[in-house]
Amino acid sequence: MKQLKLNFDGVKEDFFYRSQSNYNNYKLKPYDGDTGTTVQPVVKDYLQFSFIGRNKIESHKDVANLMAVLESKSAEHFFVVHVNKNGDPLIQYIATGNRDSVVVDKLNIHAVASFHNTKDLYLVHNHPSGNLKPSKADISLTENIVDGFRFLNINVNHLIINTYKKEYVLLDNESRFMNYPREMDNMDFIHRAVTLHDMDILREPIGKVTNSKDAFTLIQQKRFSANSKFGVFVLATNNTVVANFLVEEFNLKSIAKALTSVPNGVSVIGYGNREVGDIKTIQKKLDSFGVPLLDYIQFNSNSIAVKEAYKSYADNDLLREVQEIYGTNSVYKESAVTSIKR
Q1: N or C: more exposed end of the chain, with fewer CB within 10 A?
Q2: How far apart are CA 141 and CA 288, in angstroms?
């Protein structure tokens, strides 16, 4: 009788991740009692598929060739190809769905874009049915990500891969789409994909915040000069503050960089010793990624004022109405996680 042989190295499993990541340089400052993060993103190699294409990516045609492996898949797979200013691609695995849908985490995309200094971003997924026409969900997701990345000057396009005809659809940043044939040429460079689905726990959360008073109690522990200074608290789903970053300006870029560097961050609270005039614009842009800006706490820099007085933009209706308890997302229509279904 033959004995069943088991393979425990994971190589032949559907989802195999290299245990020793080659991205050890992706390290953030651990929380030191003042600034930093209590959790660390983990970038891992994703080895389910092999990708062969050009060394540099010059256009969507190169991306279609690179992702040709999706043509033979019976379930929808969602990837993102990040291209920096030098044309270097980094393929990011997002999710696997079923025959007609897949769930996409937009914050994961944003985090790797910050890591790779992405200039051009290509969303890529396949339609196992062979139907190349973008669904309403495909178009809506593309528009949402285009809007979210526009303020970072990142160009976004979306490729839908055909199963049978070696064709693909390009859905551009103006929601226009066109069919293209896939032309194989100069396919001699092997690329790997990465995933950002894990995190290292560096220490306990900084604190718990359920209202503006809790937020200000944490802020009181920081030292501020009379010069303009701002900070960003990143919160996890259980209202715990998992990161605190000091930023030069309280704007979309600084908030996005802070938020997307924290793998379990779902909402933010800003604070500073100056008014923020475009707070609703910032909030609207963060909404496109399903991230609530729960509050902005303004205070003076002198010690007496810091101890006794602050202004909560949420409490004073300078932000739209938010939840009585920070961190619940019931009033927000958008979500950082979106399902595209045909």
Answers
A1: N
A2: 10
- Cα 91 → chain centroid: 14
pLDDT in tens, the chain (342 residues): 444 443 334 444 455 655 445 565 567 788 888 889 999 888 889 988 889 998 999 999 999 999 999 998 999 999 999 999 999 999 999 999 888 888 888 888 988 988 899 999 999 999 998 888 898 999 999 998 898 888 788 999 999 998 778 899 999 888 889 999 988 776 778 998 999 888 889 999 999 999 999 998 888 877 666 566 899 999 998 889 999 998 888 988 888 888 888 888 989 999 998 888 888 888 888 887 778 899 999 987 665 444 557 888 888 877 755 545 565 544 444 567 666 666
Domain boundary assignment for the chain: 41-198, 204-331
Q: Tokens in use for 268?
A: 């933010």
Between 3.40.50.150, 3.40.140.10, 3.40.50.720, 3.90.1150.10, what CATH number should domain 204-331 receive? 3.40.140.10
Tokens of 90: 């980094």
Cβ neighbourhood burial of 182 (10 Å; 0-12, 13-18, 19+): middle
Q: What's the pTM?
A: 0.82
Out of 3.40.50.970, 3.40.50.150, 3.40.140.10, 3.40.50.12280, select the CATH number for domain 41-198.
Answer: 3.40.140.10
Nearest Cα residue to 41 out of 259, 288, 246, 205: 259
- Residue 148 half-sphere exposure toward CB, CA atoms < 13 A: 28
Instruction: Give the pair of three-digit tokens for residue 59.
Output: 């256009």
Residue the block writes with tokens 């990708």:
51
The C-alpha atoms of residue 9 and residue 83 are separated, in whole angstroms, by 32
Beta bridge partners of 193: 46, 91
Return the exposure string of 304-341: e unless at least 16 CB atoms fall within 10 Å of the residue's CB, then b.
Answer: eebeeebebbbeeebbeebeeebbebeebebebebebe
Tell me which H or E stretch contains 65: helix 60-66
